[in-house]
Amino acid sequence: MTTLQIEQFSCRTDNFGVLIHDTATGATASIDAPEENPILDVLEDRGWQLTDIFVTHHHADHVEANLALKKKFGVKITGPRDEADKIPGLDEAVGGGDRFRFQDYDVEVIATPGHTLGHICYYLPDAETAFTADTLFALGCGRIFEGTPAQMHQSLQKLAALPDDTVVYCGHEYTEANARFALTIDPGNQQLVQRATDVYGLRATGKPTLPTSIGLEKVTNPFLRTGDPQIRQLLEMEDECDEAVFAEIRRRKDSF
Ligand code: ZN
Ligand code: FE
Questions:
Q1: C-beta separation of 155 from 123 below 8 A
Q2: Structural domains in the chain?
Q3: How far is the CA of 1 from the centre of ligand 1 (A)?
Q4: Which of 134, 108, 135, 133 is nearest to 122 (CA)?
Q5: Are the C-beta atoms of residues 194 and 179 closer than 8 Å to each other?
Q6: What is the number of the ligand closest to the CA of 114?
Q7: Tally of helices (H runs) and strands (E runs) in the chain
Q8: Using only C-alpha atoms, what is the Rg of the chain?
Q9: Strand bridging mode 120-124 / 129-133
Q10: What is the pLDDT of residues 62-81, one digit of tens each?
Q11: Considering Cα of 73, then 88, then 137, then 178, what sign does the dihedral take?
Q12: Cis peptide leading into 229, omega within 30 of 0?
């Protein structure tokens, strides 16, 4: 039985805020700190006290409220060791393969370089939940700002190896644009076609398209489907390695 409550809300233009709250102890962690006021609103609405921030990477839209929230709540900030000097207020640096506790829950740190070189994801196996920020998106993946396509591909493969029913929270609501692009790469995929329709419907009524799951991404997200024969045929890359197929899909998305 899980004592974890997860609250997702939108902030900034297209970022998600996520709070995880342990009902047994009252501890509450924010996944990244994109914007102070929406986080404060949800805390007040729920009557929760913030105790932790788990940072995924150094971009401003993920750390901007770190210091303000630290000042207000005295929170402990955990974040990526490989970009520790860029994380405001960092208390505890962690890296790939590390495991720490959030109350009764194990938290596994997965190194996912690519979007930034130090990007990490957080996986809570007991809660069957992963927070993938700007590495894995619904029907997409993050832009490669600091790493290489091969690194990003490997990072996504680590996430794809999590159990299919893992619930996935991401850093941004990009799903509608991602769906339009995915259909240009994998137009014959009926599960993708159906999902795109669902996504357009949700967005038309202002609803979030997340969380998603590893299983759903594996059958519909072209960035996780580099081995698919139909995708390879469309790209005319039947005999190339997965990294090369991934790099080509990413290149096309960058100019879509
Ligand atoms: Zn980012
Ligand atoms: Fe971001």
A1: no
A2: 4-254 (3.60.15.10)
A3: 33
A4: 108
A5: no
A6: 1
A7: 9, 14
A8: 18
A9: antiparallel
A10: 999 999 999 999 999 999 99
A11: positive
A12: no
